[in-house]
Amino acid sequence: MLADVLTAISTVRWIQRITVVSADRSVRRLTHMSGAHFLWEGDRRGLNKGLRLALLDASRRKASAALILPADIPLVTPREIRTFLRLSDGHSIAITPSKDGAGTNALLLRPPRIIKPSFGKNSFRRHTAAAKRIGLRPKVIKLRGISLDVDEPRDLGRLRNASPRSNTGRVVRLTDSQIKV
What domains appear along the chain, each with residue ranges and CATH number? Predict the structure, then answer.
């Protein structure tokens, strides 16, 4: 799934730098093969602390914005990423909720450290509340491919029944023997 997401992101010319944050050093090779940068979050840091580290790095590099996408959205397409970025233009914070409306599957922060990332259960509500606390109304952008994430076994069935095209244009057919959790 990470490879699918990296493939989709890497073709969006508006994105100047791709960074993969992970505690798993084995991800480094795949990251570099895709032309992205790898940022090791350290032992037991956790998702949100790792993302704060990446946002600090983006701020130090003088990035004007940061787009956070999880690795478990295999149906994301370059077109959806471009649509998200186009629709978010002029907003300091833009969010695509997960399929159930509780999680966050895309988070644009302009500037990168305008709020702290708060991923996990009910993150959509927390991100929206954080924006409101600083007087901002986040732009909510619902996109099918970005909203479909794989968090639990039943999500694999949803993936199988979703659009039969991957972001590379090849037909994706999952069989029960390919689904391993």
Answer: 2-178 (3.90.550.10)
